[in-house]
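[AMINO ACID CHAIN]
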Amino acid sequence: MADGCVIFTKAEELIEWLDENDILMNLTDKEAGLLLSYMEGHGYSIGARGDKLVRVDTTEIDEVLEDYSIDDVIDAVFDWNYELKAEADKARRNPDNFIDFCEKQDRYESLVKDERIIEKMFERTVYGKMIISTLNKVSLVK
């Protein structure tokens, strides 16, 4: 890819880059793989240009690079999972037949499993820590 950008295609590549650049996220293979999968499913890739993490919009003819933190990656995936889960919940409540229900239920349950993993990652982001800190302050006010 142009501009010296390297695209991560495997979870291990993302984890290795985070470690080499002292980004203290400590992702597991499953977590990193989930992030890459959601990004790809939404028309993006994650890569690096030097010591910067970047998001690449792969839907554009000339792929667009944007500096993007691992916290932003997790936040985007968190939002996408929420939206997909809501759509899957609505779909499973309106099946065409029993087989359709089973397929839609499986999809919903898969997204719920993803949600548990994503929530744990989100708690480690600056956004998650800020929310937890705010909640702690509010609970102290009582």
User: Anything to note?
Assistant: Residues 9 and 36 are 7 Å apart (CA to CA). Helices lie at 11-20, 29-41, 70-92, 98-123, 126-141. The chain has one domain: 2-131.
